[in-house]
Amino acid sequence: MTATNSRAMSTPPFTDVPPPLEDPATLEPVVARDGTPPRGRSTAQNTPNRFERLALELDPVDREQGAPPPSVPTEFLVDSTRSILAHNDSPDLGFDYSLNPYRGCEHGCIYCYARPSHEFLGFSAGLDFETRILVKERAPELLAETLQRKSWTPQVVALSGNTDCYQPVERRLQLTRRCLQVFLDCRNPVSITTKNHLVTRDVDLLAEMARLDLVHVSISITTLRPDLAAVLEPRTARPRRRLDAVHRLASAGVPVCANIAPVIPGLTDEEIPAIVRAAADAGASSAGHLLLRLPGAVEPLFVDWLRRTIPDRAAKVLGRLHAVRGGRLSENRPGHRFQGTGELANLISGVFDAAHRRCAFPGMPPLRTDLFRRSTPGQLSLF
């Protein structure tokens, strides 16, 4: 399968990124017959693509007892998109425009609601989503061009709505950092969401933006248990590192919201008070929470993960998801996707609200748009 408008990065255009040691196209991914995911991945499945007539199934192999699980390398593809800001009109989201330097996410969070978007590229929402990453190599240049247009109205842009802009490859490619520099040069406000400690690398830019009220950072903290995080979100920062990121950013004057996202009823909802307290102690300005949603192919992926990874909790989690989603596992109606209904959903919200009040967070300052300036290419430090 090939992604629309993309090409394999067998010879990466980035001088600081070495080409892969092996061409991923020549590697035949395999999975153990017991369903064990490849090393560092949350799933072994490639769920059928709703837009494709044919589906690819990984070839199962037998493993000797005690042998390590197989591995599947990450393949990076160049996305030659000509536009960079995605417009959103969903009533569930608090922004109109978002910027995604990457498509897909190597973090491999099993619950990620962005997984089905990979199907539009001809890939699967399963293993493909975390192993076939599209890179928008011209993101900073395209952003600069967009902000210079007279048609652009200064407003908050979300980084990112459909990926994590600080996933592992960002350490080498620095697309997010270069985009932040453009936002700073143009004085356009940004709201960042990530669960990776790598965000602290850019504390110099973020502190300068915070001084001008141009940035909010939201750090997603799902659980405080490192063992659970290791199988739930295998390739991102562990809870202790995320709290350290909150502390480092807050110490630099950057407003940080600790977002308990997602809350998984029957699995992580019991940790809400502890997470809120830990975030407050780390210096967060605010906290939030969002209920788990399982759109499209994410539902079978999550259910399989649940029954395979923590079978003793599977029935409880599924039962409570049905309780907060009106008898379903997910809610896809616009305006209700991140909200639950019923007594249990109200109880979860009540527990969060009480914990939030006890911590007396100072709150996130409003972001400014009145400082916006259109710069010419020669004035942008990016160039």
Quaternary organisation of the protein chains:
single chain
Describe the largest sheet: 7 strands, mixed
Query: How does the overall form come out from the CA principal axes?
Result: globular
Number of strands: 13
Q: What is the SS-derived class?
A: alpha/beta
The percent range for strand residues is: 5-15%
Report the uncertain regions. 1-33
Strand order within the widest beta sheet: 5-6-9-10-11-12-13
Helix content: 25-40%
Question: Over the alpha carbons, how many angstroms does the gyration radius reach?
Answer: 21 Å
What does this structure look like?
- The model is unreliable at 1-33 (pLDDT under 50).
- Helix content is 30%, strand content 14%.
- It contains eleven helices and 13 strands.
- The strands form three sheets. Strands 5-6-9-10-11-12-13 form a seven-stranded mixed β-sheet. It has a four-stranded mixed β-sheet with strand order 1-4-8-7.
- By secondary structure, the protein is of the alpha/beta class.
- The chain has helices at 127-131, 139-148, 170-173, 175-186, 203-211, 226-232, 239-251, 272-282, 298-309, 311-324, 343-359, and strands at residues 6-8, 30-32, 59-61, 75-79, 85-87, 97-99, 102-103, 132-135, 157-159, 190-194, 215-220, 256-263, 286-291.
- Helix 5 links the parallel strand 10 and strand 11.
Record the SSE blueprint:
Blueprint: E1 6-8, E2 30-32, E3 59-61, E4 75-79, E5 85-87, E6 97-99, E7 102-103, H1 127-131, E8 132-135, H2 139-148, E9 157-159, H3 170-173, H4 175-186, E10 190-194, H5 203-211, E11 215-220, H6 226-232, H7 239-251, E12 256-263, H8 272-282, E13 286-291, H9 298-309, H10 311-324, H11 343-359
Parallel strand pairs: 2-3, 4-8, 6-9, 9-10, 10-11, 11-12, 12-13
Antiparallel strand pairs: 1-4, 5-6, 7-8
Helix pairs in contact: 2-4, 4-5, 7-8, 8-11, 9-10
